[in-house]
Write a structure and sequence with these properties.
- The protein has 265 residues and is mainly β.
- Helix content is 0%, strand content 54%.
- It contains no helices and 25 strands.
- The chain has strands at residues 2-4, 7-11, 17-22, 31-34, 43-47, 52-56, 60-64, 70-75, 84-88, 91-96, 99-104, 112-116, 125-133, 136-143, 147-155, 162-168, 182-188, 193-198, 203-207, 213-217, 226-232, 237-242, 247-253, 256-257, 262-264.
- Strands 21, 22, 23, 24 and 25 form a five-stranded antiparallel β-sheet that branches. A four-stranded antiparallel β-sheet has the order 1-2-3-4, with no helix packed on it.
- Strand 15 (147-155) and strand 16 form a beta hairpin.
- The chain starts with a strand and ends with a strand.
- The relative contact order is 0.11.
- The model has no long low-confidence stretch (mean pLDDT 87).
């Protein structure tokens, strides 16, 4: 799920299609973008500086420009079982069971992949999603199918080795300090808040810079599970993509949520 120039873009469960609609189109039929070259779409992100959408497919990343033209951005070689993507500047960070890989933007030619080394203590984890913010990384992951956590790590100033500096979550569960399948994360850059899609618990957990819980968003549509997150800094809104295809928009006012979110289908 991504938002660009007032439009919300959502990957459809069926192949070859992306739906999109504006904030005023709630409860109306979305527009559909199809392409027979699509194989198995997994994630979509927006680069606002150049008005470009990037679409993660099974074996490549596509780009969709403001003229509605789709072209191949780069071929990729990752595990296709479950992969996600995030953006930092014009660099794309792809997360899969193979680990983390950054596709660095180049002025000429295709972007070059750079492997992101995880801290030693996280080498046996199953990553779900990761973000890069100001030189540090936040990753949602599972360890041994039992420990569900969000970790923040950065490079040591002395040795440049990656170090895990903060964590949230212990054993899988629904208590206040537990997570159950944290499948996606988003960041609010002004204050450094981290949003975590706590999938199986049907909630979004909001953490501070040190991954301490600030509050929990548990007001979600009945029977739905959060799978994607997108924070809109300009309007202070959090978009939550649900398993049934709807998008819930939460408006923030400092640390307070409006109690009635807007739901788009």
């Amino acid at each position: 799920m991504a938002c660009l120039e007032g439009k919300i873009f959502v990957i459809q469960g069926a192949p070859h299609s992306i739906s999109f609609f504006t904030m005023e189109d709630n409860y109306s039929s979305p527009n559909i973008k199809r392409d027979n070259r699509f194989r198995r779409l997994m994630d979509i992100v927006a680069c606002h500086s150049i008005s470009m959408l990037y679409i993660l497919d099974e074996a490549c990343i596509w780009q969709l420009d403001k003229k509605n033209i789709i072209s191949k951005y780069v071929d990729i070689d990752i595990s296709p079982v479950f992969s996600t993507m995030s953006i930092s500047g014009r660099d794309l960070l792809v997360t899969s069971s193979d680990g983390l890989r950054m596709y660095r933007y180049k002025s000429f030619g295709r972007p070059s992949p750079v492997e992101i080394r995880l801290p030693v203590g996280l080498l046996t984890t199953k990553p779900w999603h990761a973000l890069e913010v100001d030189g540090w990384y936040v990753i949602a992951h599972i360890e041994g199918a039992k420990f569900h956590r969000v970790s923040k790590f950065e490079a040591s100033q002395l040795t440049r080795a990656k170090l895990e500096v903060f964590t949230y979550g212990k054993k899988m569960g629904a208590d206040i300090d537990q997570l159950s399948n944290p499948v996606y994360v988003a960041v609010e850059p002004k204050h450094g808040h981290i949003f975590v899609a706590d999938h199986d618990n049907r909630r979004v957990v909001v953490l501070d810079r040190e991954l301490k819980r600030v509050f929990t968003i548990s007001y979600l549509p009945s029977g739905c599970y959060p799978t994607r997150l997108c924070y809109l800094e300009k309007s202070s809104e959090l978009l939550v993509g649900m398993t049934d295809g709807c998008v819930v928009v939460y408006k923030f006012c400092r640390y307070v949520l409006h109690c009635k979110p807007t739901v788009f289908y």
